[in-house]
Amino acid sequence: MAIRDWPEDARPREKLLKQGVATLSDAELVAVFLRTGVAGKSAVDLGRELIERFGGLGGLCRADRKAACSAPGVGEAKYALLQAVMEMARRTLAEDMQARDALTSPSAVHDYLRLIMRSKEYEVFCCVFLDAQNRVITVEELFRGTLTQTSVYPREIVKRALAHNAAALILAHNHPSGVAEPSLADRNLTRILVDTLALVDVRVLDHFIVAGASSLSFRESGHL
Question: In whole angstroms, what is the distance from residue 74 CA to residue 33 CA?
């Protein structure tokens, strides 16, 4: 049965408008995005299949062009729309992050870092550079590594901090393994960076580890 033949309260778009977007299931959200199904399948059926095919909403949103466009009901136009939606989310979070004090409102920074880092299949190391009022100056990916490790050079971080005239910064890296617990190497590196940056009067406010859907704050967990 086509969605247009369903009771009005059961149709995903009408349900969203009347009850709010949070009431929709993952499959219904995808159905609103797709708008139409394919022969013999409603948009909700197709949404459910896409979620199963890509291992969840996150997998669908992070799928590369070839994989996404080869999936039934997606194609180039829907893939382009999905990329635009994801970029809108990144820019919205970036605006929220830049408008707030990173020390008193760390959630905005945390959410932004999770969005840009969680899908990486290799390790990356980023720095969020902050001014004297703890407002975000910029975010830079400074180092990139393999599936399990990356090399971080304190001197390069000091150079970038001085170039931005930063008063403080937040460190961040991802664990593609999906385990957010810091390793001994992570803890040792953090201590080295805290001590090194203190020599040029730059404070390290936190160090985030992003691991898939989970994450860890060194400050909140007592490691900093």
Answer: 10
